[in-house]
Amino acid sequence: MANGKRNFPWLTEFDVAHRGLFEAGTEAEENTLKAVELAVDAGYAVEIDVRATVDDIIVVFHDDTLERMTNGKGHVSTWGFRQLRDEFTVGKTGLPMPSLPDVLDVVQQKTPLFVEIKYDKRKDLQKVCAGVRHAFEGYGKNVAVMSFDPRIVTWFKTYMPKYPRGLVIGREFLLSMKARLALQYWVHKCKPDFIACDVNLLPNSFCTAWRKKGNPLLTWTVRDDMMEEIARQHADAVIFEKPAIVGKKS
């Protein structure tokens, strides 16, 4: 039970497909509806990344800019949703990036969904969070939010407390004593229901202490057998990419 009050057992009941069960260069590119569909059909939970367009629509896309994954250029947050849909396609799919409601329509509560919220300083943080909340209206259960930005986690604690929230931590939080103190401060302030830690940082004293208190720890991104062995030993759920995990479900 995280923080002694809230309990979401489903957070750690499934292996979690990072950006869907994707395969680069195919119809199932990362963060696409096909990748999400494949993960759902295979019995995995799904993790996706979301960010906001200039007109405050929440799209499912990892990068701040379009260049790596589309035939477009520039920052996602400077384009309108209709422009993105009409002008650019993702990878080899021939399809535009999906919206968050598009993904919710595919998942349909069949499996847990973890929504990592990306923040662009060009956007109003309040509007980004409110956009995610609006997309969730009427969806139901088994959806969690997570972010590297503790201000986002704090926003959901205040304005959307019924959904579990997670703080994502990477190397920057564990580099120095000052960073560790900042992490302790933000955990106290935003009261996450789970932590998602970079597998390359496990084990560490913070995450070990977190788990000893009975709090869920997820880890990312597991890509091979060695990473999986570490993840199984030091975390409660695994966020993975193929070929790890696939074909070896426990």
Write structural notes for this entry.
With 250 residues, the protein is of the alpha/beta class. It has a single domain (9-240), classed as Phosphatidylinositol (PI) phosphodiesterase (TIM Barrel, Alpha-Beta Barrel). Helix content is 32%, strand content 18%. The chain contains eight helices and nine strands. Strand 5, helix 5 and strand 6 form a beta-alpha-beta unit. The chain is globular. It starts with 15 loop residues before the first strand and ends in a 10-residue tail after the last strand.
Q: What would you say about this model in short?
A:
This protein is an alpha/beta fold and 250 residues long. 32% of the residues lie in helices and 18% in strands.
List the helices and strands and how they pair.
Blueprint: E1 16-18, H1 33-42, E2 45-52, E3 58-60, H2 81-87, H3 100-107, E4 113-117, H4 125-136, E5 143-147, H5 150-159, E6 165-169, H6 177-190, E7 194-198, H7 205-212, E8 217-222, H8 225-234, E9 237-240
Parallel strand pairs: 1-2, 1-9, 2-4, 4-5, 5-6, 6-7, 7-8, 8-9
Antiparallel strand pairs: 2-3
